Amino acid sequence: MRIIFSRKGFDSQYGKVPSPVLPGGRMVPLPIPSPADPHRLRDVRIDGISIGCLVSDLTRRRIGLATRVHLDPDLCPHARNTGVDSHPAFGQSGAAQTHLARQCVGCGDLFLFFGWFRHVEQFNGRWRYAGDGAGFHALFGWLQVGEVVAVSGRIDEVVQSHPWLHCHPHVAAADRHRGSNTIYVATRSLRVDGVDFGIAGGGLFTHLSPTRRLSAEGRSRSWWRLPRWFYPGDGRPGLSYHGDPARWRLEPASTLLRVVAKGQEFVLDGAHYPEATGWLHAIFHEARGFPRARQREKAGADYINRTILPADGTPVSLTRNRR
Fold this sequence. Notes:
This protein is an alpha+beta fold. It has helices at about 50-60, 95-100, 155-160, 170, 275-285, 290-300; strands at about 1-5, 20, 40, 45, 50, 70, 90, 110-125, 125-130, 135-150, 180-185, 190, 195-200, 200-205, 225, 250, 255-260, 265-270, 305-310, 315.
């Protein structure tokens, strides 16, 4: 199985601010602005919650409800108000898709999506970033590949066989994704080395945890602290795009990696890293017991009046304080 670290969401170029981590640790990955895409920010829900006011506050109203956004990867069952049953999916094209193809990414391989995050707080009824610092990289979602769908020149055929993809940006705005336009559709359930993890094949991690944080404490977000076994020694092929030995520092209990600035897809061949299985178990441990059906239940039971219940049970409103 190949593990693909896939950079997605707001960054210094698209969105220009970090995605928020709410009080209590809830992560809210933000889809990047994209003028030609079909969805607007008002259409987007994270577990049934509208995030428009949150984004407006954090961008100082530069991005509002009418902003068109690139909803990809599409991992949340309630991300769109379409009423159409959908499956988690992720699209790629151009040079990034060429890299995935050259790395032989296909069925059974696992995308781990990461982005730029920072803690936020409410002040005088509005959201703002908390404390100092430029934020950090963290894993926010996953997709295990169950099907690879070639889109280029096959729009009608794709929509007929996969109806829920008609509004996916790599179909609805296919003219912007010429050159190996491809969609990866998730498996029904996540399986690693024959073990069923008991969760859906694609989804969002709800909360930040130490195992899901990539950036090393006290360093810029481009320096990742990884398990020691990630170090590409003994002739093993390392993480793609990171062949320069100067990017790696082997420490007694971990490995430091300075990640490349603009790469999108970094591929690790798990066949050479058997230790990856235990690491994945740790990352997904807190996600156990939340398959798609449970996510729908939580969207209706825990998130009422656009309010999130953090880990400590204290409600945090995503609407503004109007007093």
